[in-house]
Amino acid sequence: MVVNVRQCVSVTLSVLLFTSFTVSGNDKQSATSASVAAEKPNTLNEAEKNAGWTLLFDGKSTLGWHTFQQPEGTPSWKVVDGTLTVDPGASGVQHGDLATDKAYENYELKFEWKSPENGNSGVFINVQEDAEHPIAWQTGLEYQLLGVAHADNDDSAKKTGEIFGYTSQIATSPAHGDGQWNQSSIRQTDGKVEFYLNGNLTTRVDIYSEQWKNWVATSRFKDFPAFGASAKGHIVLQEWTSTIYFRNMKLRTL
């Protein structure tokens, strides 16, 4: 038999190249799949699990939450396409803010949110749920959430990322519009509170400081002695004048 050496070498190289391409392609596909899985909303990656993060919202239900002061009612809040949202105009449900079942103290909370352009909502921390305080803002600090066209954006003490009514932002960090997701986080340790918006520190207070107590005493909250006085309480999502969307709500204890 006459063997064509060139033909054999050519076939061998083709097989090797095809095998290499196939393996490389499979590796890339596996890496891409892993990346997509890690970025899936309302899930924890291995690094987050190892760091002690837990999900406050599972992307499927309102498990772990209840209507503030109305725990037996059917919440106006619902899950739509992996987001936690509310329709202020819905009927046949219990309207109101949505509170965590648990109270939290020293922690870091991070979440993503988006709002209609004229939307207005907020996230309260350290809320006391008792008969003396039927409304969340009577005790809890509000992380203000506004749509980009809302009139309160012109008020230096009401911008997104502020403690509602408190002071101007430490850093200018406008919210995203056009249906884009914003990234927010709240850190609290022994009464020292920091708010972040899209990676920028926007507010810092120490609720046990004289400066904070003096401000409260002359603020719109002066008639509510329990306002901003506790470093432990429920996390509460505000149902206000518009819809709001949340996802990737994660918390770890500090």
Short description:
This protein is of the alpha+beta class and 254 residues long.
Give me some keywords for this one.
254 residues; alpha+beta; Jelly Rolls; 2 domains; eight-stranded antiparallel β-sheet; five-stranded antiparallel β-sheet; 3 helices; 19% helix; globular; disordered N terminus
User: Main β-sheet, in a few words?
Assistant: 8 strands, antiparallel
CATH superfamily of the largest domain: Exo-inulinase, domain 1
Care to count the β-strands? 13
Order of helix and strand elements from N to C terminus: HHEEEEEEEEEEEHEE
End-to-end span in angstroms?
A: 78 Å
pLDDT average, as an integer? Answer: 88
CATH class (first level) name of the largest domain = Mainly Beta
Helix content percent band: 10-25%
**What is the CATH architecture assignment of the largest domain?**
Sandwich
Structural class: alpha+beta
Could you tell me the radius of gyration in angstroms? 25 Å
Number of helices: 3
- How many separate structural domains? 2
Report the portion of residues in β strands.
25-35%
Q: Name the shape in a single word.
A: globular
Question: What is the CATH topology classification name of the largest domain?
Answer: Jelly Rolls
- What low-confidence regions span 5 or more consecutive residues with pLDDT below 50? 1-26, 28-38
Keywords: Signal
InterPro entries: AL/BT2_dom
Pfam families: 3keto-disac_hyd
Protein name: DUF1080 domain-containing protein
